[in-house]
Design goal:
elongated, 76% helix, mainly alpha
Length: 116
């Protein structure tokens, strides 16, 4: 069976743009959950004795971080990032507020045609 010639090539600009969009969505979702976990859920657990928000947000963040990880690796491979750039982007996804900085930096570099 012949390959579908209408599908974008793995490393085409269109495929990289789609991977960047997936990365941006997942970075934002993971970042928001991480901020909620640290700013809302953990104070509720430790100062008000209400542990449920940590359980719910922590579990959601964990599962969605796995998707963020996959989206980041996909983008890194398609756009031929350096190993350092990929590792830094992945690590910053685990630090409250810095995930937003990483997403913005990656987006700016990608749009400028720079290697991350």
């Amino acid at each position: 069976m012949a390959a579908d010639r209408t599908a974008p090539a793995r490393d085409s600009e269109q495929a990289i743009a789609a991977a960047l969009q997936r990365y941006r969505v997942m970075a934002t979702v993971v970042g928001v959950l991480l901020v909620l976990l640290f700013v809302v859920a953990m104070p509720l657990k430790y100062f008000a004795g209400i542990p449920e928000p940590v359980t719910v947000l922590g579990t959601a963040h964990g599962w969605l971080y796995a998707l963020f990880f996959l989206a980041t690796v996909d983008l890194a491979l398609r756009a031929k990032w350096t190993l350092k750039g990929a590792v830094v982007a992945l690590v910053l996804g685990t630090i409250p507020f810095l995930s937003f900085v990483a997403e913005r930096t990656v987006t700016q570099k990608m749009r400028a045609g720079e290697r991350v």
